[in-house]
Design goal:
The protein is α/β, with parallel strands linked by helices and about 350 residues long. It folds into two domains: about 1-120 and about 300-320, Nucleotidyltransferase, domain 5; about 130-290, 2-Layer Sandwich (Nucleotidyltransferase, domain 5). The chain contains ten helices and nine strands. Strands 3-2-1-4-5 form a five-stranded mixed β-sheet, sandwiched between helices. The protein has a four-stranded mixed β-sheet with strand order 8-7-6-9, with helices on both faces. Helix 5 runs antiparallel to helix 8 (about 240-270). The two termini are about 25 Å apart. The structure holds 5'-O-[(R)-(carboxyoxy)(hydroxy)phosphoryl]adenosine and zinc ion (ZN). 5'-O-[(R)-(carboxyoxy)(hydroxy)phosphoryl]adenosine (KG4) binds near residues 181, 281 and 286. 5'-O-[(R)-(carboxyoxy)(hydroxy)phosphoryl]adenosine binds near residues 181, 182 and 286.
Length: about 350
Amino acid sequence: MKILGIETSCDETAAAVVEDGSTILSNVVVSQIDIFAEYGGVIPEVAARSHLEVMMPVVAKALSEADCTWDDIDAIAVTYAPGLLGSLLIGTLTARTLAILYGKPLYAVHHLKSHVYANWLGEKAPILFPVLALVVSGGHTQILYMPAHNKFEIIGTTHDDAVGECFDKVAKILGLPYPGGPSIAAAAASGDAGKYKLPHPKVEGLDFSFSGLKTAVLRAVQKELGLPISHPSHDLKNHLSAQQVADFAASFQKTAVEILCEKLSLALAKYPDIQSVVIAGGVSANQKLREALSEAYFPEPKLSGDNGAMVAAACYYEIQSGVMPVDPYSLNIYPRISIES
Ligand code: KG4
Ligand code: ZN
């Protein structure tokens, strides 16, 4: 079964063709990172307009690189939520129109489910259930208990910022470009991870909190520079040396990875029946996290971020689990299916 997956939830316009949930026939991603690097974050209206410009060429390229015509496509899968509304609308309206035009069944896929299913892409050892999934993206930080395909229970979540968001905000304080994850990882390579002691938040159970860690970095930078806490955060970068930036990046990255690993260990102790651990979402590209969790499954680094292949993979397992297509004529964006369902 060949599925065309379409993803436009944030600042990547992506389409891919995947066979039977694992073999990637094409995977086209056009990133808007270059546009947003200078702003330090995504501007939703600009993101939506950029999706509009490249959406159809991206779909056409995904089909041609997969050597497919529309006759070869069995279903269309599209990210319906969560994400930026304007960005999601470009993807969902495109998918609905194509489904009507070519008479294909249309599936609305939850974005976090897609990130989890990036782990099933490619040839690898079978992932055994029950699975524990750590979802670490720009918008979410969650631990999911997955007893079988397409069944999810949220057992831990962040009370405030997501870990990826924390990477992005700390990068901004340090004067590193958006997205913060890769730029912090690069700066950290020449830094001393033991230089600054940053606190681990005290959050009950399997939940997370990352806004305190961002503030702790802010206060530590102000202290290091001998500046008052009223000193504007956007100006601090002008006072930091390259070595201080590297040391703060390394210390922050180490702390963030430790926090994730601690919660994962706690979850494994609480759910001793777990057979496999999968890590999902943009932050799963982080090399230090990969080294710290060497027993876990990670997507191929290029599949950690947003892409269409993971949407097609998630859709394949939804179909296997008996999920029905949605009505492409429906004016409602899509039913609010919770990730637990
Ligand atoms: O999953 P994703 O591509 O988009 C969302 O669904 O949010 O995640 C993007 C997030 C950004 O916050 C980015 O800074 C982070 O993933 N990220 C990383 C790395 N690469 C991307 N964080 C840490 N280390 C990385 N290498
Ligand atoms: Zn994502």
